[in-house]
Amino acid sequence: MARTTRETPRRAFTLIELLVVIAIIAALLALSAAAIIRFIGTQQANNTKSELSRTQAQLNRLYSAVKDTAYKNPQWKTEMVPGTSTTVESFILSNLAGTDANAKARALVIYVKLKLRQAFPMNFNEAINPYPLPPLPAYKLYLNSLGVTNSTGAVHESSACLLMALQRAVSNQGIDLADLGGGSVVAQFATPNATIPALVDAWGTPLAFTRAPTGSIVLNPSGSQPGPNDPVDPQGLLNSGAWQPTSMRTAFFNLILQQQAVGTGNSFKIAPMVASAGPDRKWQIDPISFTPLTVGASGDDLFSNP
Questions:
Q1: Could you give the CA distance from residue 200 to residue 52 in angstroms, rounded to a whole number?
Q2: CA–CA distance from 184 to each of 41, 143, 269 (Å)?
Q3: Is there a contact between 306 and 214 (Cβ–Cβ < 8 Å)?
Q4: Which of 34, 132, 153, 269 is found 20 to 30 A from 109 (Cα to Cα)?
Q5: 68 to each of 23, 73, 89, how far by Cα in Å?
Q6: Tens digits of residue pLDDT in 163-191
Q7: What are the two backbone dihedrals, phi and then psi, of residue 238, each rounded to the nearest 5 degrees?
Q8: What is the reported pTM?
Q9: In whole angstroms, what is the distance from residue 97 CA to residue 62 CA?
Q10: Neighbours of 105 (CB within 10 A)
Q11: Which residue from 258, 228, 271, 212 is spatially nearest to 60, judged by alpha carbons?
Q12: Helix (H, G, I), strand (E, B), or coil: what is residue 197?
């Protein structure tokens, strides 16, 4: 009689074994998710740094073109203040330039600063009414088409104005969005009557733009030596002790916005800059003056390099 063998039934997984397997899978998933999140965060930071670098390069090019044209403009002495019979030169000499021996030379520097404000506004009010200069027709037409009549204090204003300036440059050398990294660097933001495009970082937060970030911890780190360091004012005429104590100096700073000096004969390095609030989407700097909101704070804000 043939011998038969009994097959032993296959033992099923115990509850403990199942829990161990599930725990291992969960740990692997957590590690993978963490790696993916870190990769995405690194990629977003790299994309934003690239956007800041490209934006700064285009800004430098157009900013220099406006500055050079303004310095060489033979008509600036006959340009008229809107709605008046006063020339811009007379207005500057009477209200802003001071009365010392350098007043006329300083008047030209102030005129160039005003032209830069006209071409690179930091808010809608500066674009709509860059007094004592007229608004640029291209900016006025563009903002009117969007129903923008005044500033609202919204965080996206400086970014929207920068995009407007780069695309509708007074030098007729405007950029294409591809120059900054493609359409993904722009988002739409609500205005009272419509929406307006503004430059954003990889986290969707509007960039911040300023012409003269005298409080910037990047341009002026702790311990840096003060002194004239303004490409628009190479002779330091805006740092003259004969002009700084005057009410005309105060009037100029109120007009030009955020170009404070730090005492007679001293100044910070001045150059237009762009910044991102970083991955936490919260500013550790004031997004207008680029002054740290907390003493010693650096946070995760990202900056262009002028």
A1: 10
A2: 16, 22, 32
A3: no
A4: 153
A5: 67, 9, 18
A6: 999 998 776 667 777 777 765 789 999 88
A7: -85, 0
A8: 0.82
A9: 26
A10: 11
A11: 271
A12: strand
